[in-house]
């Protein structure tokens, strides 16, 4: 199994190489050369398996010879052991035919733990075997960073730097990043928005001298290994609801297009997914692109679902690559237009291809709050604002004949202000992290400037 770049000008890599490098050297994202297929029989055989066993069977064909079977089984077991729920990704019912996939039982209470916990184990194993170390730099709107710090804290083979927009993450998110006291993890607050943090991260990866000097590695949602880890719960949920003998639809609250792209891969593997619905908040570049064919950045409007407050949706490039018939040159040209002109028009053919796979909806701030209140009053669920965006769009787009699964991407206690404003109830943190507000914080402030950030990293990495 080889991985190729969406911009067509970087060498094809193995799973291990693609995972360790993150972004391709031509600026593109790695995707599998071809998508392994699971037959109806293979999918039926997942009935009754644990989450870990399902993960093994879904991911195995993507990994080539990176890990042998016994090692892979161990790494998966270690990744999900810290979760606070035996099912890992339990389904609860909201209404007739509408289900919520709770992806917030991991150590930092958001779905990103599913991928990050696994990547932590994969990196440690692969690097130890190679006898080498790397520097991981990530940009976060809050949840990626806390999940990464949690997954990598204390590991020998890795130093971790997480760039987050100062003052624009929730207090729970910030504390999850700033309270771990291991010397290999660093939370860096930069001036600006998430898109600024992400832009500096990309600049750093494109500075090949620095990239090689500190052996830079990325774990943002552009890392293929993360997308792959997220494919698993589309299978576990659909199988619980009767796949492959019954089709299931999914609605995914999304910003960076990572989670929904994982659903697309599940479908390409053979999982019968009827509809795959993109749910955005008021930062709706994806919804505008899908409806009008124009992918154009605006300014970020901070919302009560901050983990989706972005304008450049990195993983969308992977969907474009397929929609343009895997023409890396065409994708590279679009990305140039995006960089120089702030956007591009999607060709008619590509737009049609995208619409075959994805529907979309957009939810305003008022609708998000109203949804949180109504879910509490009528469905017995406290939703985080991101999940509420999903549930709202799912209700609008649902076909009553097909079960709809909405992904609940974070625990309500991670965004308590928005939940309290909508319901009057302040959701409590699970007991295992009840002392979060009592732990001392370590914060580093930095300018939104490439060379300042590179200097900081050089000084702090363990030699
Ligand atoms: C990251 C995140 C999202 C968006 O996920 P993408 O993969 O970037 O689309 C949605 N909700 C929450 C809570 C998140 O942390």
From TrEMBL:
Pfam families: PALP (PF00291), THR4_C (PF24857), Thr_synth_N (PF14821). Residues 99-331 form the Tryptophan synthase beta chain-like PALP domain. GO terms for molecular function: pyridoxal phosphate binding; threonine synthase activity. InterPro entries: Ser/Thr_deHydtase_PyrdxlP-BS, Thr_synth_N, Thr_synth_N_sf, Thr_synthase-like, Threonine_Synthase, TrpB-like_PALP, TrpB-like_PALP_sf. It catalyses: O-phospho-L-homoserine + H2O = L-threonine + phosphate. Coiled coil: none annotated. The keyword Amino-acid biosynthesis applies. It comes from the Bacteria. It is an enzyme of class 4 (lyase). GO terms for biological process: threonine biosynthetic process. The keyword Kinase does not apply. Its EC number is 4.2.3.1. Residues 2-80 form the Threonine synthase N-terminal domain. Keywords: Amino-acid biosynthesis, Lyase, Pyridoxal phosphate, Threonine biosynthesis. Its cofactor is pyridoxal 5'-phosphate. The modification N6-(pyridoxal phosphate)lysine is found at residue 112. PROSITE patterns: DEHYDRATASE_SER_THR. Pathway: Amino-acid biosynthesis; L-threonine biosynthesis; L-threonine from L-aspartate: step 5/5. PANTHER family: THREONINE SYNTHASE FAMILY MEMBER (PTHR42690), THREONINE SYNTHASE-LIKE 2 (PTHR42690:SF1). Belongs to the threonine synthase family. This is Threonine synthase. It comes from Roseivivax isoporae LMG 25204.
């Amino acid at each position: 199994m080889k991985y190729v770049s969406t911009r067509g000008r970087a060498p094809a890599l193995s799973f291990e190489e693609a995972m360790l490098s993150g972004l391709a050297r031509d600026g593109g994202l790695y995707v599998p050369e071809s998508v392994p297929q699971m037959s109806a029989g293979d999918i039926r055989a997942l009935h009754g398996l644990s989450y870990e066993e399902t993960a093994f069977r879904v991911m195995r064909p993507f990994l080539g010879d990176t890990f042998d079977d016994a090692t892979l089984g161990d790494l998966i077991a270690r990744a999900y052991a810290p979760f606070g729920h035996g099912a890992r990704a339990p389904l609860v019912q909201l209404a007739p035919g509408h289900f919520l996939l709770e992806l917030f039982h991991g150590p930092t209470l958001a779905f990103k733990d599913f991928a990050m916990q696994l990547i932590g184990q994969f990196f440690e194993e692969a690097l130890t075997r190679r006898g080498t170390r790397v520097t991981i730099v990530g940009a976060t709107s809050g949840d990626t960073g806390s999940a990464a710090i949690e997954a990598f804290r204390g590991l020998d083979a890795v130093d971790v730097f997480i760039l987050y927009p100062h003052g624009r993450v929730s207090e729970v998110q910030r504390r999850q990043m700033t309270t771990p006291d291991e010397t290999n993890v660093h939370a860096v607050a930069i001036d600006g928005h998430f898109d600024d943090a992400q832009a500096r991260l990309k600049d750093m990866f494109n500075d090949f001298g620095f990239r090689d000097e500190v052996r830079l590695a990325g774990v943002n949602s552009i890392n293929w290994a993360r997308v792959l880890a997220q494919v698993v719960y589309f299978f576990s949920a659909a199988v619980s609801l009767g796949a492959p003998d019954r089709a299931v639809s999914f609605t995914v609250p999304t910003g960076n297009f990572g989670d929904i792209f994982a659903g697309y891969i599940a479908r390409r593997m053979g999982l019968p997914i009827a509809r795959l619905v993109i749910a955005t908040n008021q930062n709706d570049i994806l919804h505008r692109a899908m409806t009008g064919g124009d992918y154009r950045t605006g300014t970020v409007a901070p919302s009560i679902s901050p983990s989706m407050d972005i304008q450049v949706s990195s993983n969308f490039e992977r969907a474009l690559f397929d929609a343009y018939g895997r023409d890396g040159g065409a994708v590279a040209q679009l990305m140039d237009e995006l960089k120089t002109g702030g956007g591009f028009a999607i060709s008619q053919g590509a737009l049609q291809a995208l619409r075959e796979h994805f529907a979309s909806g957009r939810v305003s701030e008022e609708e998000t709050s109203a949804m949180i209140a109504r879910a509490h009053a009528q469905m017995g669920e406290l939703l985080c604002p991101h999940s509420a965006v999903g549930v709202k769009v799912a209700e609008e787009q649902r076909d009553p004949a097909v079960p709809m699964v909405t992904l609940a991407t974070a625990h309500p206690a991670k965004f308590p202000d928005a939940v309290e404003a909508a319901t009057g109830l302040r959701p409590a943190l699970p007991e295992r992290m009840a002392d979060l507000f009592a732990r001392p914080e370590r914060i580093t402030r930095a300018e939104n400037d490439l060379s300042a950030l590179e200097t900081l990293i050089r000084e702090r990495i363990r030699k």
